[in-house]
Every structure is written in C-alpha cells, then in structure tokens.
C-alpha cells in the first residue's frame, strides 16, 4: 500500500526518534521537530517507515494512504 | 454598491423585520434551499470563502439522528467588526439564516457562538422570536474566549463541547463528525444573513451585484487615515481605491486582516475586492478587513506590533508555531527598531519557511503570509532602518489590537 508519512503536530513533542530511525525521509528542524518528506514512501523504505511510526513515543506519526484527501479550510 | 452601515442604527424589532422582509421562508423539507444557494454562488464570509451549498449538502447527507447548526459570530480578528455590528443592528437576519440553514440540513440543535457576552439586542431578538413562535429550534448561546483562534472551526467545536477553544489537528470534517460526534454545520454570521435573503429573494436577486464568478456583496471593516473605522457593505469586485482612496496620504494597503497581505502603492491601485483580482498579488479578501496605512506611519513598526500579538496568540500546541512565531516577531521588532544585524533577514526567511504548513491550523501560514508581504512591500523601509533612519513622523499605532493580551491557559475557556 502506497502511503506518505504524516505527523500530528499537536501530539508531536520533538523527541526526534523518527529522524534517527529514518533519516532518508525525516530530518529535524532547529527546534527538534520533524521535517517530513511529503512524497510517497518508496517500497524499499516501507519497513523503516513502519518502524519509525511504532517507535514514536508520542504516537504522533502515521502512514497516511495516498488517496486520503487533504483537509479543507 | 457601497453602503456605510450606521453604527447608531437601532436594531429592528421582530415586527419591523418581518414587515420589511416577510415571514421566515421555511421550506417544510430539508435540502430544498441548497440548490438555490448553489445557484446564488454564496461563499462563506468568515474568511475562507468556501462554497456555502457544499457545506450544507455535506451535513444534509451525513448520517445521524442528531445534527447541529452553528452561527459563528466570534470574529476573533481584532480588526474585524462587521459580524458584531451585524448582530447588533440586524440580529433577526442572522437568526433567520440560522433557522433556515438548520432546516436545510435537518439540524436538531442550533447554536450561536459569540466573542463577547450577548448584547441586549440579541437577547431581546431571541426572546421575541420565542414568544412569537418564529424559531423552529431553540438557540443556545456560547461565549468564545477573547483569543484570535477561538473562532476557528475546530476550536469552536471544542468550546461548544465544553472544552477550551483550541484548534484540533485534521479532525474528521465537522460536517461528518462535529459537536459531540454529530454532523455539524458552522457558518459565519454574515453568511447566514446572506442566506436568509437568498431564501427570500432567490439567486438572481443575489447575483445582481458582484462579479459573475464571485457574486453578491460583503461586509468590510475600513481603516483610513483620520477617519473613524467604518463598516461598509460593498459589492464584490468594487475597486479598492473606491474604498480606501489612493492619494498620497496612504503608503500601502492591507487586505484580509492580520492573516492577510500588504499591498504596495501605487502598483496595487487598480485592484478590485475579489479573489480573481487580489490573487495577482497573492492576496484575498478574507473577512473584509481593509486598511490604508497613512504615509506618516512606519509599516515595519505596525507589522512588528501585529506579529508580536499573533505570536502571543499561538495556541502553543504545535512546536514550529510555538518556537517560530515569537522568533519571527522578535526579528521584526529588531528590524523596526533599527537594531537588526546581517543575520536578521536571513533568519526571518528561514523561520518563515520552517513554520509554514506545519501547524494543526492555519495560524502559522497566515502569519507568515502577512510577514512576507511586509518584507516585500516595506523593503525600502528595511534598508532605511538599517541606516538608522525611518520615514515615519508619527509613532502612534494605526492598526487596532485588543487592550489586553491574554496569555494564561485559562483564557482559552
């Protein structure tokens, strides 16, 4: 299943575990909060992405299905 | 159309209201108003300009025995005064709209959300309607805390549910799961007044003013030099200079309020008040706040002051907004004070990029739009300030801010 990584910015507390586990797709900004590659997770990184999701201590990271519509205003 | 609303106007009582506009045109069935709203082209007047018929249709088709309709009168933008005035001088029009929208979506509950304690006009209007059996649903009033984000749709839902008025992250759409999980319609107060008129006079009447793509009129709050604040109902597509003037007394225009955009003069002088025109400058009408910054004021100082307020109004829930906005505000204050160093502008650019798109709500994005437009429009001033100069001759603040900036957790309730 193709998906993209999404962070819930309210839940995220900037532990940075995700960026350590998946530096290919996640960096941290100067305050420690994740900067996430918005493109679909490539097949080769899917396992790593799932690992980052389950390792997040704040349960703030998930993989969203591509067809999920963006929020309207 | 460009009509100044008289703030001294006495509110129309129910009898006068009904004899002027006729009875509240209930349709007797849900959904029949929605095609008329679609044909009218009415969009939300709270700032986002979302097509009204689509929101109503979503709630009407959502499953649930309990459904909720909310009139949002909590304009939290401190520069916008139009909903407050409308609710004061024409409460029955808004309340008609709430009942009609509630009927159209099959709502079982109606709410009115206000940014202050309800004025006597509203309480009297509701009492009259109850006494004369005009309302199909009783209306529950809830007061919003005096915060910039309290009128945001998910914050409103949280507040009506008894919690703090904090925005939520990517909730299911409130039209599917809003208050207490019930499908919920939230419409701005002015939008409901337009809806009440469209229900009576039809889409063709509504389209008599405005542009074919953006029909109708909208309320604007106007700030100009040496004139007191005025609320005008104007046709969408009205030239901005007809509202703000474009003489030498103005140095820049602000459209769309504090999440809006500074426009340079004279480059922007041909723009009109509609999305199609304003888009060419990256701007939008928003909730109709329009200001002409007088030539004797400092645009940087104004921007720094407003941004400091916006930073303090962050709900503090999302890391980038919590960390970024105060730094952006501090950097702008340095620029305005002529204390900036070589790093300041680079920092501003980087932080602006870092906060954009990373909040649960649009607060960081709106703030950055405002800041970036200032950096562009007031670029010559930034250079002047770097040399220790400032073209302004008056230090008196121009754009309004609330007297008291609340800051404690309690203030969200």
DSSP strand count of chain A? 4
Q: What's the CATH class label of chain A?
A: Alpha Beta
Q: Portion of residues in helices of chain A?
A: 10-25%
**Largest sheet: number of strands, sense, barrel closure of chain B:** 6 strands, mixed
Class by alpha and beta content of chain A: alpha+beta
Number of strands of chain B: 10
CATH superfamily of the largest domain in chain B: NADH-ubiquinone oxidoreductase 51kDa subunit
Name the overall outline of chain B: globular
| Domain module count of chain A | 1
Radius of gyration of chain B: 21 Å
The average pLDDT of chain B is 95
Taking all Cα atoms into account, the compactness measure Rg of chain A is: 12 Å
**Strand share of the residues of chain A?**
15-25%
Tally of separate domains of chain B: 3
Cα end-to-end separation of chain B:
40 Å
Structural key phrases:
heterodimer; A: 73 residues; alpha+beta; Alpha-Beta Plaits; globular; B: 413 residues; Rossmann fold; de novo design (two linked rop proteins); 3 domains; six-stranded mixed sheet; four-stranded parallel sheet; 15 helices; 40% helix
What does this structure look like?
The complex is a heterodimer of chains A (73) and B (413). Chain A is α+β, with helices and mostly antiparallel strands. Chain A has one domain: Alpha-Beta Plaits (2-Layer Sandwich), CATH 3.30.70. Helix content of chain A is 21%, strand content 22%. Chain A is built from two helices and four strands. Chain A has a two-stranded antiparallel sheet with strand order 1-4. A two-stranded antiparallel sheet of chain A has the order 2-3. Chain A is globular. The mean pLDDT of chain A is 91. Chain B has 413 residues and is an alpha/beta fold. Chain B has three domains: 2-206, NADH-ubiquinone oxidoreductase 51kDa subunit (Rossmann fold, 3-Layer(aba) Sandwich), CATH 3.40.50.11540; 217-294, Ubiquitin-like (UB roll), CATH 3.10.20; 299-397, NADH-ubiquinone oxidoreductase 51kDa subunit, iron-sulphur binding domain (de novo design (two linked rop proteins)), CATH 1.20.1440. Helix content of chain B is 40%, strand content 13%. In chain B, the strands form two sheets. Chain B has a six-stranded mixed β-sheet, with helices on one face. In chain B, strands 4-3-2-5 form a four-stranded parallel β-sheet, sandwiched between helices. In chain B, a hairpin with a 6-residue loop joins strand 6 and strand 7 (230-235). The mean pLDDT of chain B is 95. The A-B interface holds A 8-14, 29-33, 71-73 and B 48, 50, 168-170, 173, 317-321, 323-324, 354, 358-360, 362.
């Amino acid at each position: 299943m193709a998906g993209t990584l999404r962070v819930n910015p309210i839940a995220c507390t900037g532990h940075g575990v995700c960026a350590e586990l998946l530096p290919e797709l996640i960096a941290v900004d100067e305050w420690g909060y994740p900067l996430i590659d918005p493109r679909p997770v490539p097949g080769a990184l899917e396992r790593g992405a799932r690992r980052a999701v389950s390792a997040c201590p704040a349960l703030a990271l998930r993989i969203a299905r591509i067809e999920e519509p963006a929020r309207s205003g | 159309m460009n009509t100044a609303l008289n703030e001294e106007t006495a509110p129309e009582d129910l009898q006068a209201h009904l004899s002027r506009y006729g009875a509240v045109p209930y349709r007797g069935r849900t959904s029949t108003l929605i095609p008329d709203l679609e044909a009218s082209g009415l969009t939300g007047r709270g700032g986002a300009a979302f097509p009204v018929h689509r929101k109503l249709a979503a709630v009407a088709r959502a499953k649930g025995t309990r459904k909720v309709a909310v009139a949002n009168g909590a304009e939290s933008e401190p520069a916008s005064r139009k909903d407050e005035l409308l609710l004061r001088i024409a409460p029955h029009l808004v309340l008609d709209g709430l009942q009609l929208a509630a009927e159209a979506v099959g709502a079982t509950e109606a709410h009115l959300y206000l940014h202050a304690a309800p004025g006597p006009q509203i309480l009297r209007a509701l009492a009259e309607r109850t006494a004369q059996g005009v309302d199909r649903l009783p209306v529950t009033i809830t007061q919003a805390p005096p915060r910039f984000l309290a009128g945001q749709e998910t914050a409103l839902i949280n507040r009506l549910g008894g919690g703090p008025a904090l925005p939520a992250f990517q909730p299911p759409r409130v039209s599917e799961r809003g208050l207490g999980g019930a499908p919920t319609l939230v419409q701005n107060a002015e939008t409901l007044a337009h809806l009440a008129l469209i229900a009576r006079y039809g889409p063709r009447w509504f389209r008599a003013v405005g542009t074919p793509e953006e029909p109708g009129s909208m309320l604007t709050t106007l700030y100009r030099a040496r004139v007191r604040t005025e609320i005008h109902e104007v046709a969408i597509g009205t030239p901005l200079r007809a509202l703000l003037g474009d003489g030498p007394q103005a140095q820049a225009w602000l459209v769309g309020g504090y999440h809006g955009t500074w426009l340079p003069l004279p480059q922007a002088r041909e723009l009109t008040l509609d999305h199609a025109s304003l888009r060419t400058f990256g701007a939008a009408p928003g909730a109709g706040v329009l200001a002409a910054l007088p030539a004797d004021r400092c645009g940087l100082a104004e921007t720094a002051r407003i941004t400091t307020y916006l930073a303090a109004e962050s709900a503090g829930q999302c890391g980038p907004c919590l960390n970024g906005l105060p730094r952006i505000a501090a950097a702008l204050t340095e620029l305005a004070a002529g204390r900036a160093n070589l790093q300041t502008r680079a920092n501003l650019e980087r932080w602006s990029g870092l906060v954009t798109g990373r909040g649960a709500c649009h607060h960081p994005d709106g703030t950055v739009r405002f800041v970036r437009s200032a950096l562009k429009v007031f670029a010559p001033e930034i250079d002047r300030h770097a040399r220790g100069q400032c073209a302004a001759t008056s230090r008196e603040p121009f754009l309004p801010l609330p007297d008291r900036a609340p800051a404690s957790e309690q203030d969200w309730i």
